[in-house]
Amino acid sequence: MENDQKWAYQYDDYGLYECPVEIVYIEDDDGNVTKVVPENATEISPGDLVHAKWTGSAWIENASAEYIETLEAVDSEDESDGAKALKAVADIVETMVRGDAG
Predict the structure, then answer these.
(1) Mind listing the pLDDT tens digit for each residue in 59-94?
(2) Could you give the number of structural domains in the chain?
(3) Does the residue 2 lie in any domain?
(4) Which residue among 6, 35, 51, 95 is the one 20 to 30 A from 29 at the CA level?
């Protein structure tokens, strides 16, 4: 049995995004395959939300507009080339882990 590695997005008891988790495939003796998404997880990606919260049917932004503005202000301040490169690599790795990469 071969299945591509697929990810779900786990949230806590309050619906707040925690981390990506691997979806497991279980094959029975007859060759039937069942996909198992872990509890408190969804296959829907939280995308680029700053502080994602799961409503039961969709992710919503849980961060206040003021908080997001402070992050944007920090991002727009002068950074060294090394810091910019490090942030770019971190963003790429996060996208790959979440499975959003094209």
Answers:
(1) 999 999 999 888 887 766 556 667 777 777 777 777
(2) 1
(3) no
(4) 6
